[in-house]
Design a protein that fits this description.
By secondary structure, the chain is of the alpha+beta class. It has a four-stranded antiparallel beta sheet, covered by helices on one side. It contains two helices and four strands. The chain has one domain: 2-Layer Sandwich (Alpha-Beta Plaits), CATH 3.30.70.920.
């Protein structure tokens, strides 16, 4: 079961709205506002790599508040 952390940059001042929107996406396990280079940290779980790609590309990155993302796919043990 693929999982990933997604580091997200959002439009200035849109952190809370972006967090609320991201948390409503199916497959998002956790999401937090962060301080530093990235504004949000999101943990996603999917059934397949294609589903994970769809969540990141067509759901998270499609939001108007999202400026950029960095996806870190977790390795299975």
């Amino acid at each position: 079961m693929p999982r990933a952390f997604i580091l997200v940059n959002v439009e200035p001042g849109e952190e809370e709205q972006a967090l609320k929107q991201v948390k409503s996406i199916e497959g998002v396990e956790e999401a937090y506002v962060t301080y530093g280079v990235y504004d949000l940290m999101v943990r996603v779980k999917a059934d397949t790599m294609d589903e994970l790609k769809d969540i990141v590309t067509h759901k998270i990155r499609a939001s108007k508040q999202i400026r950029s993302t960095l996806t870190l796919i977790m390795m299975e043990e």
